[in-house]
Each structure stands twice: as structure tokens, then as C-alpha cells.
Amino acid sequence: MYRTCLAGSPPSAPRNVRVEWKTETTVSLLWNPPRYGGPILCYKVEKRQLSSEDDWHKVVDDCTTTNYLVTGLIVGTCYLLRVAARNYIGPGPFEQLPSPVTTSLQYGELSTSTYK
Fold first, then answer.
1. By the number of CB atoms within 10 A of the CB, which of 10, 28, 34, 65 ranks highest?
2. Is 112 helix (H, G, I), strand (E, B) or coil?
3. For the CA atoms of the chain, what is the radius of gyration?
4. What pTM was estimated for this model as a whole?
5. What is the average pLDDT across 36-65?
């Protein structure tokens, strides 16, 4: 259930951004809708390598669900991930994962990129 926002207000930040699972090149993100600012039109997901001083990079800006599979990540790399909601007024603030996530192989797996 969404609470309506004040006239002219963007939504609050999504809540409880978390990792559902990860592989060597993907991270499955989940989050809860914002407390205020519904109805939500879509969500924007961004990423940044922890070791990089680069700006944030758009992963998707039109996600209509409260989960997204971030793909194309580099094995063994630490990432910061964040999510923002958008309503008819505009985008709200980002909510970031509470801690960085590192892509990794599961125990006993071989990387497909190792033998290319």
C-alpha cells in the first residue's frame, strides 16, 4: 500500500535495499517501495566500483518491479549499488546497499572466463 504524497512531491527513497543472491557476474537486488510518494512509475538502479572514483553508472532507469538483476559485472570486483523511485513529479532520493557487494564464484565452480 502506498501513501499519497503532498502535491508536487517526489517519492521518498526505496527501503531495505538488499542482495538476494549473486554470481561471478550478476547481483540480484530486492527493495521495498518508498513509504511516501506513490504511485511509483518506475525505479532507477545505478552502480559504481568501490575502487573507482568514477561517477555512478546507470544500470536501468525504467524498472517497474521491486527487484532487478544487475548483469555484466566483473568477477571479484566490489560494487556499490543504489536505487531511486520515480513518480509523476520526478525522481526521489537514492537508497544505497548498506555495504558493498563483491561478485565471486561459488565454492567449487570454475569461471567460464578463465578458459577463453
1. 34
2. helix
3. 16
4. 0.84
5. 95
